[in-house]
Amino acid sequence: MDLQKIKTLIEFVGRSRISELVVSQDGTTVRISNGISRQVTAAENSIVVRQQPARSPIAKDAIAPEGDKAAQRVIAPVFGLLHRSPSPGAPPFVKVGDVVEAGQSLCIIEAMKVFNTVPAHKTGPILRILADDGQEVEAGQSLMEIG
Question: Model-level pTM?
């Protein structure tokens, strides 16, 4: 990977709302973080290349009523393919009912082989999951609700 490409990626992370970017090419892996503290799991460190996983059903059950004002939605920062687990065949980062900490990884959005980790913006339980694993999501689309 050449220096100009790395500089372009650094500028991209600086302009976007993503907290971290991991790119692999020809045996070289580059991890760029915008400095927002977050938890990094061993499973995330092993992510290099992903294949599209089989689709799993959307968790339609909700813990809180639809109109609950305390729930806050997690929004997709970029357009791409949603991955709910850190690698194919691994359990999802979170499921309905899990209590997450602010900064904890909730999912990954893959756009052009660039993996964007989506962190929790607040501490609380996952109330609803609004997007399927393997689904294409739009920037600004609601992915989950945290209570």
Answer: 0.54
